[in-house]
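Exam revision sheet. Question 4 asks you to relate a sequence to its structure. Input first:
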Amino acid sequence: MEGEFLETPEIVFETAEKAPSGAFSSSSAKHSLQELYTFWIFFQKISKGLAERVPARSSLASGLPQKEFLSFLVVVWVKSGGNATIVNMKKIVIGNWKMNPATLLEARKIFSKVKKTASSCKKVHTVICPPFLYLSDLASKSSKESLALGAQDTSSLESVGSYTGFLSPLMVKNIGAQYVIIGHSERRREGETDEMINKKILASLSIGLKVIFCVGEKERGHDGHFLEFVKQQIHLGLQGVSKKSLQNVLIAYEPVWAIGAENAILPRDLHQMKIYIRKVLSEFFGPSAVVKVPVIYGGTVNPENVELLLLAGEVDGFLVGRASLNPKDFSAILEVANASK
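Answer key, structure tokens:
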């Protein structure tokens, strides 16, 4: 299916007319919500009601009472008509090499070792984003099925022209990349604005690239202001993106304070942020958006914490930095993701 993440859940809604009979009775509503949550993020603890996972007053819901926040989930379930079927699911693990390694020979060695593991991890879609000058060489060694390539950035200029030093989305695609990272905190730190990011996203989607859209707060306080910060990043970055094009976007939640830190985000907090991001997408694009966009995590991802982040954080994959340059560590991450349910 052109233009879709075939590796992520494709939810088939049988009807969008009305909720099933009795959906709002005290018992069946809870069951429906629980089912929705399962479809959403493969919630594996079926025996527990969704209400048990959301505090009465959660920062996740910007301080709204539990009942009001859960009503958002009810709306999504109603829109689906209470009928949804999961067609396929793969975790997405992306290696961002940044400005590494120093030589093409080293890049080939790392890529070759990762490819061996990626080819055997059938439940994981692996993407490597090397420096641009290595893309052409590695493209001949990549595989759309098991090991795809992505660029670390692009310009907002779609094709070609008199723009010294720029790389257009068309060039990125023609050299063999399927993905592009846009809005990474290290680019924002150098002065990239939300408006610039939005233009890059629109240009990349128009060419047919899949966009890895990075968002994340610089710091996290108890007042919950970081939630509005992330919401604004998503809103401004995705302005003008159609619902159809949204199928080619994945959100990489990468809190700046967690990048290169001693510890990653707590799984519980990650779990809440994934739900919050889907809530925001639903506000901007409608309830069906919650099942179209993969939400992955980046920030001190390593072989030691990846299993807990997957099971308790319940993200759809990872954006891995430093560990992606170590074939042993990155392969271990792929294997854990492949074994996760």
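Marking note for examiners. The two ends are 24 Å apart (CA to CA).
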